[in-house]
Amino acid sequence: MLALVGGPFGNAFYPRLTELHARGEHHKMVETFHFLTRIFAVLVGAAAAMLVFFGGAILNLWVHNPAVTERAAPVTAFLALGGLFNSLTATVYMIQLAHGVTRYTLRINSVMLVFYITALVLAVEHFGAVGAAACAALLNLAGMTASATMTFANLLPGEARNWWLGDVTKQLGIVFSAGLVLRLLLPRPEGFLVEAMLLASAGGAILLSGILADPALRKLVLQACRILPLQSSGNAR
Q1: 186 burial class (0-12, 13-18, 19+ CB within 10 angstroms)?
Q2: Can you tell me the distance from the alpha carbon of 38 to that of 49, in angstroms, rounded to the nearest whole number?
Q3: Comparing 13-27, 101-115, 144-158, 180-194, which segment has the lowest mean pLDDT?
Q4: What was the pLDDT predicted at 229?
Q5: CB of 213 within 8 A of CB of 174?
Q6: What's the whole-model pTM score?
Q7: Cα separation, 38 vs 168, whole angstroms
Q8: Cβ-contact 43, 5 below 8 angstroms
Q9: What is the mean pLDDT of the segment spanning 39-54?
Q10: 3-state SS assignment for residue 2
Q11: Are 93 and 40 contacting, i.e. CB atoms less than 8 angstroms apart?
């Protein structure tokens, strides 16, 4: 599900990364790659933060069964984290494909497959569905770390620090901090409509916190806000 959040941006940016690499415009390619990662970190991170901190409330709106919600909420949280790590790995994979390199991912997936099957069996046996979801999240994190390490060592030397700290950790820290604060402060209302509106407001606030914290994203959103009314008025004519 989280792939649907960042997927359109990946489809739009991947050809651009390939074009810039083919032209030899390394600096612009690196800038575009970092910007794409921040987009993923904010958009997918905000969605993941909602599922981590408000997953139980969201599930309860859907199933209307507190007992099911209580059991499924931890699974949802771990699956959200796994989806987030997988989405961030996709940005690294795009830069690999732009260079025409696929062997890193093939090697990592081959190794991870062996560990995943073993870990999954043990996790399910001892911890059930929660263990399986946690196992998936940890392995996705390990895969992201391995893929990023190989990519920065061989294709983008000197960019690892900017990616880990400036693109990933900073943006995720902002949206997850916003999610935690809202989870602690917001009440648990009664009534479907009120709770749905409160959750929608929380999601919007988490997303907005990530956008406002990044100058490039903030500029992009402001430009889009200026263009959309003009397009609407043009279509009306």
Answers
A1: middle
A2: 15
A3: 180-194
A4: 55
A5: yes
A6: 0.90
A7: 7
A8: yes
A9: 96
A10: coil
A11: no
